[in-house]
Amino acid sequence: MTQRLAPLSGIRVLDLSRVLAGPWCTQNLADLGAEVIKIERPGAGDDTRTWGPPFLRDENGEDTTEAAYYLSCNRNKKSVTIDIATEEGVATVKEIAKISDIVVENFKVGGLKRYGLDYASLRELNPRLIYCSITGFGQSGPYAPRPGYDFMIQGTGGLMSITGERDGLPGAGPQKAGVAVADLFTGMFATVSILAALQERNRSGLGQYIDTALLDCQVAMLANQNLNFMTSGATPRRAGNAHQNVVPYQVFAAADGHLIVAVGNDGQYRAYCNAIGRPELGTDPRYATNRGRITNRDALIPVLEEIMKTGKRDEWLARLEAAGVPCGPINTIDQVFEDPQVKHREIWRTLPHPTGGTAPTTASPIRLSETPVEYRNAPPLLGQHTEEVLREVLGWDAERIERLLAGQRSAG
């Protein structure tokens, strides 16, 4: 059989993004086989290169210049240093855009227009170009000119209003998520949008513009909470670790720790009651249906909390798993990577790195049977591929390459 190529083999991405949302998107594309050319500022590069400690350590245990944050979202890419504030730099980026399929950028609205690197300008050079802009609030509307960062978007977009302990309890108050979920979801929505535009281009032969906003993505990802409000008119509130629509679906304290019980239907609820030695709670008319358990939550949950405190965490987990009740521990991140399922799925990977010897990376959750993700290269050093791209992609000769590099060195 002929070996099948990576899904995006032959696709070239001009990556003008930095920090997280854009690089998360372009890492997805790179993982799927696209050639991603990351344009960075000479001498500085992506902001996240310095967002440490921690930094990757070399074979002697000394810090390198590569921050862990940067390493999280830039594998399989090529780094090219070009100063777009110069006429020659802009002309060079345009040369790459002419022979690229996709551009991803996250400058402020209108930020690239003054360089002639906006969609309208590049479309004239390459009508097949798919151009994805990622901003905080989108290309239109009263907030469009504002900068947007994940933390503020989690607040503006409603996530923090439903995240955290219930009002009136110790520790109550709005809480952001533990990772930059607005950025990450935006990167994923941008990836989906680009793949859709590529599929459409197969029919029309033409590219298009994609306007992706952190706020749009944050509001969209509220999912069922949006519909809770839209259908009832009642504003969802923080519920701590409890579920708004399913009971019992929360954290319980055991005698020696905590565990999650995630009962998803009435059959599982009856199995849960049997497993904890209280079958009568499974048939009680007040609690037999999820509707009843929601209505009578304040009566049921204290009873269950007292029962769960009488046993040890791992004993409860064993009993509930044997009864087919969804449950699990609350792992710290070091415990996550010791989990046998996580080990089996090989989620911790390593890649050769020019200064660190090796660099850890988290495996992509995209698992394709015939064309799996390839972990080709660690996140690149700043400017690591500048000469290679200018020579092999643009066809420049050594003299022209040196002239550009010399200009950047003198400017630095």
TrEMBL record:
Pfam families in the record: CoA_transf_3 (PF02515)
UniProt keyword Transferase present: yes
Keywords for the protein's UniProt record, in alphabetical order: Transferase
InterPro entries: CoA-transferase_III_domain, CoA-Trfase_fam_III, CoA-Trfase_III_dom3_sf, CoA-Trfase_III_dom_1_sf
MF terms in GO: CoA-transferase activity
Gene3D superfamilies listed in its UniProt record: Crotonobetainyl-coa:carnitine coa-transferase, domain 1, formyl-coa transferase, domain 3
Protein name: CoA transferase
Lineage: Bacteria, Pseudomonadati, Pseudomonadota, Betaproteobacteria, Burkholderiales
